[in-house]
Amino acid sequence: MAELTPRERLFEICDYGKLRGRGLRALISSKPGDNILESIPVVFVLSNNVRGQCCDMCFTQGCDLQRCSKCKFARYCDRQCQKKDWKEHKIECERILRVSPNVPTDLVRLMARIMQNKHSDDALCKYLSQLVSHHEQFGELRKDAFTTIITVLKHFVGGKDFQKFSTAELFELFGKISCNCFTICDAELQPLGIGMYQTPTILNHSCYPNCVVTFSQTKLLVHATEDIKEGDELTISYTELLCPSYQRKEDLRNRYYFECSCTKCLSSLEEDGLMLSLQCSDKRCCGAVPRDLAVGEFSACNTCGKSLLDKTAGTKADTIILKSEEALKDIKTLEKSDDQQGVLDIAERILANQRGFFHKLHYIKARILDKAMDACINLEMWESALDFGLQTMNAYKLYYPINHPSVGIQLFRIGKLQVYLDKLKDGLQSLLEAEAILKTTYGNHALVQELQEMITGTLEELGREEHNNRFQGLELI
């Protein structure tokens, strides 16, 4: 169960005390784009949400996947992948058939795979023994979730194999998976599955990390996103960063049971104020009116210095934020059923409520705009998609850390739309900005190669366009 390419010379495991626990410390300096670590999963499963779209073994996306002839559940890109997965799938195949037409959840399948190997794999046992579970801190919601999962798990693995584990053992295993599992994503950061990784599990969190995790199929890659000095702790982000510090802290407490004390959270008032900012009451001014969370009111405009005239702005803002968060939940449900028009309808309705009130730097506005952009792309509404995407960029560039893949992916999507709509110069600029970020976070990934090919093609098209313009100018002379 070794790492795919061990890089111990780059870092060491270090004890950072009771609050942070184990972490990784740099042994040498690194620069942005340096590959810090590569790791293959200890155990993983493909998500049911993309079943039929990706290979169960390598997660490669394809339309001509071969079904397992027995269970018809697992799919593979070729015979080789099916053979590689047979050790894990052999037992699972029988279980899938037994519970059909019911489909076990991703977490149930992951727990079942660990259970079937735990007593025979010493390396797996050692790995699991080193993980924290925090199960003793679980609240009622987590306990209720475990009760539901344990019922499904018993039915899936069968009584005989289920009885090899006590409820206490399974509760602890549930906790270890919950706190240490990675969501495996494709190049555009869309979830494909879940997996457990040996060394990456040790990486601690920061809301302003110096490293980022990406994936190439199921292989996990860690790249430096900024200059790292010898002795620095290597950190990644565990949570969404396009939200105020109080939301990030709540998410980290609920999911990982610690209080974030990174530099970004300790000095969060200014950024949080902008994330909750309103438009200036002077319609000629483009400035933001930040919310002062220390006193619960809005400050003066950061451009013209004017104060808000509307004394009910705080209450109105809270109401729209609540409606926007409810809309995001509804959008998530509609996305599962691929109702893109429904997604767009909700997004446009909420954006209409926000228009003329929330500033372009407001975090919830950026998130709704992003959903509207996704829906328009799926509906092939290219002009609208570009308009929504461009409106997200101020917030993306301000709130995400340097060289964050979310910014690079968004620029790539915008650049593709601009090129498709013959806005070649704007498209080239967006693509070049995307390349600078994605080369750092992805290295020589297929996504970067696709991006570079598009840059080359756009340069050639611009060259032809310039040549034609010159030729037409000569004809006029």
Q: Please state roughly what percent of the residues sit in beta strands, choosing from under 5%, 5-15%, 15-25%, 25-35%, 35-45% or over 45%.
A: 5-15%
C-alpha Rg (nearest Å)? 25 Å
Chain oligomer state = single chain
Structural class: alpha+beta
Question: How would you describe the shape?
Answer: globular
- Runs with pLDDT <50, length 5+? none
Tally the beta strands. Answer: 16
Biggest sheet, spatial arrangement of strands: 1-2-12-9
The helix tally amounts to: 17
Main sheet overview: 4 strands, mixed
The average pLDDT score comes to: 93
Distance between the termini: 73 Å
Helix percentage: 40-55%
Can you offer a commentary on this structure?
It is a single chain. The chain is α+β, with helices and mostly antiparallel strands and 477 residues long. It has 17 helices and 16 strands. It has helices spanning 17-20, 79-99, 106-118, 122-129, 140-157, 159-162, 167-180, 245-256, 263-266, 269-275, 313-336, 340-354, 363-378, 382-399, 405-420, 424-442, 446-476, and strands at 11-15, 22-26, 35-39, 43-46, 66-67, 75-76, 182-185, 191-196, 204-205, 211-216, 219-224, 233-236, 278-279, 288-289, 291-292, 297-298. A hairpin with a 2-residue loop joins strand 10 (211-216) and strand 11. The chain starts with 10 loop residues before the first strand and ends with a helix. The model has no long low-confidence stretch (mean pLDDT 93). Residues 6-239 form the SET domain.
